[in-house]
Design brief:
- The protein has 519 residues and is an alpha/beta fold.
- Among the domains are: 128 residues, Arc Repressor Mutant, subunit A; 81 residues, Arc Repressor Mutant, subunit A (Orthogonal Bundle).
- Helix content is 50%, strand content 10%.
- Helix 19 runs antiparallel to helix 23.
- The protein starts with a helix and ends with a helix.
Length: 519
C-alpha cells in the first residue's frame, strides 16, 4: 500500500482536519498553509495553552503528509492587550494593581526577571514549547502593531468602522454598547488602554477622536503604529487577514466570538480560517481552568509525575470532549500511552496513522516491548510500603531481564515518576480496607494456591490461578473478586493485572502481603 493511500484513508481527527485545510488551500491557490494559535499572556501559561499548540501541530504534520505544500504555525501572543485583572498566583500583587489597564508589555514583571509581565509569560510558554521540539513562529502583538505590520488592515477596519459597529453592537449588553469601539486608544498621558466611545473617525488621516475620561479633552490619535489596540474580536478577525491565517482552533467558550470575528474578517476582505472547536479543560471541581486563578495543572507539574509523551497522549485524545485536567488523570494517561505504543507494533500499516502514538512521535514511535505500566509501579510501591527507587529498580530488573536496554532504561525512568507520584498522592491517601469474612476466606485460598505454585511461574499461569479462586467464591460476579483484591491489597478500586503484578512482586512477597492485609 502506498504511503499516499495510507494517509488518505486515515480516519483520525488530525487527518480529518488536515483534509479540510488542504481543500481550503486548493481553493485559494496559495502556495503555503498558515496555522495560528493564540495566547493571552495576562497570567502564567497553563496546560490548555500548550494543548492548543500541540493539537495544531498534529494537524500541520498530517497536512504535510497529505500534501507537498509548505505549512507553518504562528503562535501569537496578544501581549498588547490591557491588563484587566491581577492573577492570584503571582507575587507583588500591589504593584500589579497599580498597573491595571496598561498594555501587558508595559506591566512590570512581578518576578523581576524580564522587562514586563508579558515578556515573562511569553518566555515561559516558549521555553516549554521549545522543550517539546515544536516548529513554530512566535509573534508578539506589541511588535506587530508598533512595527506597522497591521497598519494596512487597521486602515481597513477604520474604513469599515460603521459596518463593524453594526456587527458588534447587537452582541453587547446595553451598558457596554455605550462605550464600545473596535479601537482602544493607548492614552499618551497615562499609558493605559482606554475603553472609551469614539467621537469621530477620519479614515483619510487614519485617526480617531475620543474624549479623555479624566480631563474631558478631545484627543485625536492615529490608529497606526501601535497608537491604538483593537478590541479582541476585531483584533482576531483582523489578524487572520494580516497574517494570512488558514487554520485556527478555539475553545467551546469562544464559539460566538469566532462567528463575530469571522464577520469582521469578511468585512475587510478576508476569508475566515478553517476552524475546530474543542471542549474545555476542567479542574478537579469540574470548573474551567483559568490563567488568573491558576487552577488545574501546570505543564511543569505534569512533567514531575510522568514523561511528556503521556501529556501529549492525553491532549491528543478526543479534542471535542471535555476533560478533567488534574493530577489523578496522569497514571491512566501514562498506561493508555503504553498500551497504544504496544498496539502500534502489531497494527496493519493502514491503521497506524489512526494510533495516537503516530502523531505524538511524528510517525516514528519508539519500540517498547515491556508491558510494565505506571499503575503497576504505583501498586508495587504501595505493596512494598516504600518510596525507595532502588527497591523498585530491583523488581524491574528481575521483571525485564529479557527486555532491551532501551526498554529497561524507560522503565527505570518511570520508576522516578512513580516515586514522585507515590510520595505526593498515595502514601497518605491509600488505606487498604479490612476484609469481610468472605473476602478473608477467598484471599486465604489465593494465598494457599500461590504457595503451591512454582516460584518461577509466569504471569499467565498466576492469572489463571487468580481466576480459579475467583470463580470458586465470586462466580456470579468476578468483578467483585478483583475489586476485593484491589481494595484489600492496594486501597484502590482499580489495579493491575494480578498475574503480572505477582510475577513482578514475586510469589513469596505476595503471600506475605496477603497475610499482612488479613491481620
Amino acid at each position: 500500500m502506498s504511503s499516499e493511500l495510507k494517509f488518505n484513508s486515515a480516519k483520525s481527527w488530525a487527518f480529518e482536519e488536515a483534509r479540510k485545510l488542504a481543500d481550503r488551500i486548493k481553493r485559494s491557490g496559495k502556495n503555503e498553509a498558515i496555522l495560528e494559535t493564540g495566547y493571552g499572556p495576562s497570567g502564567l501559561p497553563h496546560i490548555g495553552t500548550f494543548g492548543e499548540v500541540l493539537r495544531t501541530t498534529f494537524v500541520m504534520r498530517a497536512f504535510k503528509r497529505l500534501t507537498d505544500i509548505p505549512a507553518r504555525i504562528i503562535v501569537f501572543s496578544d501581549d498588547m492587550d490591557g491588563f484587566r485583572k491581577v492573577p492570584t498566583n503571582v507575587p507583588n500583587q500591589e504593584m500589579l494593581e497599580q498597573n491595571l489597564e496598561k498594555p501587558l508589555t508595559s506591566v512590570p514583571d512581578p518576578f523581576g526577571e524580564y522587562e514586563s509581565f508579558a515578556h515573562h509569560n511569553n518566555a515561559m510558554l516558549r521555553r516549554f514549547l521549545d522543550s517539546f521540539g515544536f516548529e513554530y513562529e512566535f509573534k508578539s502583538s506589541t511588535e506587530a502593531y508598533k512595527s506597522g505590520k497591521f497598519n494596512e488592515c487597521l486602515q481597513k477596519i477604520l474604513k469599515h468602522y460603521n459596518e463593524i459597529m453594526d456587527i458588534m453592537l447587537p452582541s453587547l449588553r446595553e451598558e457596554r454598547r455605550e462605550t464600545y469601539s473596535p479601537f482602544f486608544p493607548i492614552c499618551k498621558r497615562t499609558g493605559k488602554v482606554l475603553q472609551v466611545p469614539i467621537i469621530d473617525t477620519n479614515p483619510e488621516n487614519s485617526t480617531i477622536v475620543y474624549k479623555d475620561p479624566e480631563t474631558g479633552e478631545l484627543v485625536e490619535i492615529s490608529v497606526l503604529d501601535g497608537n491604538c489596540k483593537l478590541q479582541w474580536k476585531a483584533d482576531w478577525g483582523m489578524r487572520w487577514v494580516a497574517l494570512g491565517v488558514d487554520y485556527e482552533m478555539n475553545g467551546k467558550d469562544l464559539i460566538d466570538s469566532f462567528k463575530l470575528s469571522s464577520k469582521i474578517c469578511q468585512t475587510i476582505g478576508g476569508t475566515p480560517p478553517v476552524n475546530l472547536t474543542y471542549e474545555l479543560f476542567l479542574d478537579d471541581e469540574g470548573k474551567k481552568i483559568s490563567k488568573s486563578k491558576g487552577n488545574g495543572l501546570s505543564m511543569d507539574e505534569w512533567l514531575k509525575y510522568a514523561p511528556s509523551e503521556s501529556l501529549a497522549y492525553y491532549m491528543y485524545q478526543a479534542p471535542k470532549r471535555a476533560k478533567r485536567l488534574y493530577f489523578d488523570v496522569i497514571p491512566n494517561a501514562m498506561d493508555e500511552y503504553i498500551d497504544a505504543l504496544a498496539k502500534y507494533e502489531t497494527e496493519q500499516d493502514e491503521k497506524k496513522p489512526d494510533n495516537p502514538v503516530f502523531h505524538i512521535h511524528n510517525g516514528t514511535p519508539p519500540k517498547y516491548e515491556g508491558c510494565l505500566k505506571f499503575s503497576m509501579l504505583l501498586n508495587l510501591a504501595q505493596a512494598c510500603n516504600t518510596a525507595d527507587k532502588d527497591v523498585l529498580i530491583e523488581f524491574i530488573k528481575k521483571y525485564a531481564k529479557d527486555c532491551s536496554a532501551q526498554t529497561l532504561e524507560y522503565m527505570t525512568k518511570m520508576a522516578d515518576y512513580a516515586i514522585n507520584y507515590y510520595n505526593d498522592f498515595i502514601v497518605w491517601t491509600r488505606m487498604p480496607e479490612k476484609p469481610t469474612e468472605k473476602q478473608k476466606e477467598a484471599m486465604l485460598e489465593l494465598r494457599d494456591t500461590l504457595k503451591n505454585m512454582q516460584k518461577d511461574a509466569v504471569a499467565d499461569e498466576i492469572q489463571n490461578a487468580v481466576f480459579e479462586v475467583g470463580n470458586k467464591f465470586y462466580a456470579e460476579n468476578l468483578r467483585e473478586w478483583f475489586l476485593t483484591l484491589y481494595k484489600v491489597l492496594f486501597g484502590t478500586e482499580s489495579g493491575p493485572r494480578m498475574g503480572s503484578f505477582v510475577s513482578l512482586y514475586g510469589i513469596g512477597n505476595t503471600v506475605k502481603l496477603i497475610e499482612e492485609r488479613l491481620i
